[in-house]
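EI: anyone free to look at a 88-residue chain?
SC: sure, send it
EI:
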Amino acid sequence: MLIWLLNILDIIVAIVLVAVHFNALYSLVIPAVAYLTIKGAIFIKDPFSIIDIIIAIYLIILATGIKTFITWIFVLYLIYKTIISFQT
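SC: here you go
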């Protein structure tokens, strides 16, 4: 059940990434960053959790107005990670 919750929250973070890239949903940046940071800290020994922390840092940078193609790489990564987790 916890895996499902984490996967759904990852999809929500991916949606927030896209929305912030297009100048919307800034109110969800702090909760998304907090979620990714806490999840990354809890599972710190997993390399994928370090990527979650990097995404959290990028989301803060994205919220300041700096937009790059890296947004799409992170969105695809979160979606890919979710799909793989649902299949296992």
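EI: The chain has a mean pLDDT of 94.
SC: 👍
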